[in-house]
Amino acid sequence: MAVDSEHVGAPAPVAIHERVLAYWERTGVPSAVVEGSPVGPTFRFTEGPPTANGAPHIGHLISRILKDTELRYRRMRGERIVSSMAGWDCHGLPVELEVEKRHGLKSKKEIEAFGVERFCDECRHSVLEVASVWREMSRRLGYWLDYDHAYRTMDPPFIESVWWSLKTLFDRGLLEKGHYVLPYCPRCETPLSSHEVAQGYHDTTDPSVVVRFPLEGAEGPPRDLLVWTTTPWTLPANLLVAARADLEYSVVRTEADREAVLASVAVPRFFPADTAVVERLRGRDLAGRTYSPPFETPGPGPGRYRVVLDDSVTTDDGTGFVHVAPSFGPDDQRIGAREKVGVFDPLDSRGAFTDLVPLVRGKSFKTADPILLQDLAARGLLFASGSLRHTYPFCWRCDSALLYRAIDSWFVRTSRATDRLVRYNASVHWVPEHLRDGRFGNFLTEAKDWALSRNRYWGTPLPIWLCDHGHATCVGSFAELAERLGGPLPTPFDPHRVTVDRLAIRCATCGAPARREPYTIDGWYDSGSAPFAQFHYPFAPGPFDPAGALDFIAEGLDQTRGWFYSLLVIATLVFDRPAYRACLTNGMVLDESGRKMSKSKGNAVEPLSLLARFGADPVRWTFLSVDFTEPMRIGEATVQKTAARTLGTLANVVAFHLENARADRLAPVAERPSPDRRLDRWLLSRLEGTRADVERSLDSIDLSAGATAVRAFVDDLSTWYVRRSRSRFWADVGSPDRRAAHATLSYVLLGLARSIAPLLPFTAEWVHQEVGELGYEDGAASVHRTPWPSSLAAREPELEQGMAELRALVEVGRELRHRAEVKSRIPLAEFVVFGPPASALSLLGEEGVALLAEELNVKRVSRADGDQRGRYPDRDWVVREEGGVALAALPRKPTAELLEEGLVREVARRLQQTRKDLGLRYTEPVAVTVGAPPALRAAIERRRATLAHDLLADPFDVVEGPLRAEEGVRNWELDGISFSARVVPRSR
RNA sequence: GGGCCCAUAGCUUAGUUUGGCUGGAGCACCCGGCUGAUAACCGGGAGGUCGUCGGUUCAAAUCCGACUGGGCCCA
Length: 988
Description:
Layout: H1 13-27, H2 29-33, E1 42-44, H3 59-76, E2 80-82, E3 85-88, H4 93-102, H5 108-114, H6 116-141, E4 146-152, H7 156-171, E5 175-185, E6 190-191, H8 194-197, E7 201-214, E8 223-229, E9 240-243, E10 248-255, E11 258-263, H9 267-270, E12 277-282, H10 283-286, E13 306-309, E14 322-324, H11 330-338, H12 365-378, E15 382-393, E16 403-412, H13 418-426, E17 429-431, H14 434-437, H15 439-445, E18 450-451, E19 453-454, E20 464-467, E21 472-474, H16 478-485, H17 497-500, E22 505-506, E23 513-516, E24 520-521, H18 523-528, H19 530-533, E25 553-556, H20 563-575, E26 582-586, E27 589-590, H21 607-614, H22 616-625, E28 632-633, H23 636-663, H24 678-699, H25 703-729, H26 736-756, H27 761-771, H28 797-820, E29 828-834, H29 839-856, E30 858-864, E31 877-882, E32 885-891, H30 896-917, E33 926-932, H31 934-942, H32 944-951, E34 953-960, E35 969-974, E36 977-985
Parallel strand pairs: 1-2, 3-4, 8-11, 9-13, 17-26, 25-26, 27-28, 29-30, 33-34
Antiparallel strand pairs: 5-6, 5-16, 7-8, 7-15, 9-14, 10-11, 10-12, 16-18, 19-24, 20-21, 20-23, 22-23, 29-32, 31-32, 33-36, 35-36
Helix pairs in contact: 1-27, 4-6, 21-22, 22-23, 23-25, 23-27, 24-25, 24-26, 24-28, 25-26, 26-27, 28-29
This protein binds one RNA strand through α14, α15, α23, α25 and α28.
């Protein structure tokens, strides 16, 4: 039968992937282990819920790989994962936007015409659809969570928990209403929080104009204040001009009978060098002077249109005068409030001008710019006009230009807890570490109040009702709502806007009827509540511990202002403790040429196609092999290359082992062997070192260190242990050395499988099943149900050191052979090792000498002292020297006898190859006839007994000259000598 | 304008915390070898101003400063 001698070969990674995935799913492995040990120590974790508004992209793979790796390790350690629930972030603008697109809705008006109830239903369904795509990706990636009991931020129990926490904040005076300038999206018609704005800055071109503000009541020629702005649309809302008290201003002549005022340092920016300065004065000299505003607006209040002083005025750019529109800027609002001039906001909720500014009535703020400028120019008020390229905030979801405007909003008063936020953050183990005091820490010290309310539909409703006396009532549970309502809630109760907006309750302060504040809350508050709200805390019993911070979270770096922040704020303000102990972040995934991936550029790599093409482990290994804390360049070619290396090599070693073990019917060895051979002990020691490295790496969530250790071990295993042990694997099956080699390799592969199970779950399972001969039958026998090994073998550092030195000697020997131009197949008489490196030989003893001799194909390894260099003249020896000291020497030429031996060995290999080509078993006897020229024939004859034995050849005939060409005869040429042979199986 | 991070061979990277032997490795490339792991394995070669400049030091990829390029964040 030819089958036995066919190579098993290593299956492609994707085939391994499919086989293992099918086994897990058939036998229910993931659900059996996902929670870890029910009785083990708690490992607190929360899945950062992806916003279910679109299909996952490749950037979503990396954080899942990191999370899964750590969780697998914790499970093997016997810990209990609290919680292993998957989660979906269901609320918020992203979801609404998706539904708006689907139904072609362009504004809140259209949503209301569409029907808010129907709109919210659509949002709900959209979320459920998208979640199934994510679940499929996770399944193929092997990201094991409890998807059947996923938490959803839109579920009533989740919302009730969020309400509970909001009430807690409210009772502590940390949730308040205010009227402040906030970033505002005119398309979404809602304010955004600063961390949302942070996600949407990009470059844009705006007008850059200088406008004349004519001063009133002065003698002499008319004087204009020159005011610089990049937002002409705010000019109709102008109420004041700010100057700085101590700043020097110059009055310059612009035309024959007209003068302009601006900061002296700004004069060269706008006027030629020879411009005459009429007068110099200080900002304070101008205070109180009135001017005529650029646009007439109805009902000017008292105190408007005058010059005021403020330190926020800078001269870095502009003219030293700042136009103040209190409704459209934080500084403006502050100055306006101080000067008690009120506000004037001529924009409607969609950012379009109202009747208050007839000139641009109905125009959105941005499109009004040119019209306003044209009008100013016509009236001679436009002094200079240009454009400016700068960064400007845009809506992170719909990409509309934002505007800053004063608006009613509810705030979480994070600014009152800055010191605690900073302190709790200081205890976090950040990876990379610099985030703690760097980007994240800086953000905390500057933290502003969190603008929580959103003027939207699909979100957790803000549970606050107001009565006509202005008392606010915050409702912290459904039961409390029913109580204040004075009757039962509708059943089933869905606590979203459509329902709760209709519920009028009694004010908690005065008992008067109260109406709900018509807001939803920032979706980031929902996800930040996930650690407790997923358990319906405090309404239902569960494993959530209010005093316990999460042990581990991992997400992309973009979450610093998002989830990492909202988790910390809520944990600090509600539970007065840190939110998490360790936070692992990853950078952005770029394409192979370093560009951002985007669907529009067409360079995006689909996670599912990547997984389908390569399987999960090559993808996982790729991400673990790069520096994932920085931006990564990843594409199909990267995965192919990275994966082929370690995974391909390991698969080959396993295939090699299986082939030998099966041929000899040797059972796998799972008990720790205690071999005599140093090579075996060396491998066991290296295995234990690798196991310990992976353990250290996963304990300290420094995942790539583990991957580096595994890569190095697989390399050693393949390129040294297996290579150096090959002949042992085809020794007689009864021999102790054959047994020892088998025991060592099978034990090492099984131990390796357990050690890499967290990093390479599919490959580990494959090795575990194949080498362990488990047959993918029993789910309980999965490698992922084995405990993490605390020790696999004895560590022998000196042995490892000695082996490293020995391998360095091999390299020296190879180099010498290369220089002597003697091929490896020709044996040489001697390899001489001088001086200190010989310590490798003493550490490894006779075995080391034998290894060296075998690897270098020399008959003898000898040792010499350095001063014996003279015994090895350059005429006969090639010598490796370093710094004038001899290291090793090799004869320049083989003896005639050794040359002949090499040649015959070559013949033997050709004949063995022929056996293999014929598909013969190693044990099948053959009849061989060799035809060779006289010299070679004589050489073969001298060694015929050995050859016949090795080839299982009987009869073994050697004749002179080439054989006649007939069936089964093959011809070869060896260094100019040709010979032919015929090999025939005896059984045929 | 401010803050944080990154920079080692064509590519992916080890080494940087704690300064010290000729800065390791893999892929790709060239040459050669091996042939019961074969889309594997082994050797040799070529390829590094360790981003640039300066400083500290007996000694700097490593520590300090500035700069350049890239990324992220803030205003």
